[in-house]
Amino acid sequence: MNIILFGPPGAGKGTQAKLLQEEFQIPQLSTGDIFRAAIKNETPLGVKVKSILDAGELVPDQTVVDLVADELKKEKYSGGYILDGFPRTVPQAEAFDRMLENNNASLDAFIELSVPEEELVKRILSRGEGRSDDTEDKVKNRLSVYQNETKPVLNHYQKQDLVKHIDGIGTVEEIFDRIKSELKEIA
Ligand code: ADP
Fold this sequence. Notes:
5 strands, 5-stranded parallel β-sheet, binds adenosine-5'-diphosphate
């Protein structure tokens, strides 16, 4: 099963991706986690993207697409995967369509977690993960980048009739149950 978890910063993608990973025994691929690990380890990729993440801007499409294409070649993803944080622009979604086509693979579901903006800001500022991009002005910038560049990705997948809307308000378990019941229909 190949799944995309989509939604604004703070919507709970990472939390739900981890639960799905356990439940279905398929690995999560989080581009944000990969970038943060690269920054921490001061790899060439980390050095390249540090100031971009710090500012809450997007890493250039080609960098992200190359990274995901390389990562998905790993054996561990051969039985399926959960994408968290990718694709985040329409060109990334188009590149991902081509990746799937080249591998004779397909996407099973595009899960959109929706959460109102005031709640997102509250959640991010109170989650205390110590992320350098979790300050109020950077969160505002990430939300505006989401509206302008990422939201159009939804329409791309609506055209493919793959979008499942999930209400992202509630407890972690409630939201997880909603996702599972949507996925039951396609399994
Ligand atoms: P959040 O959803 O809370 O913003 P992520 O961990 O998904 O957190 O992303 C953190 C940062 O990593 C983004 O603000 C961006 O700079 C970078 N990033 C992650 N995924 C992508 C992507 N697909 N394209 C461009 N930049 C990305």
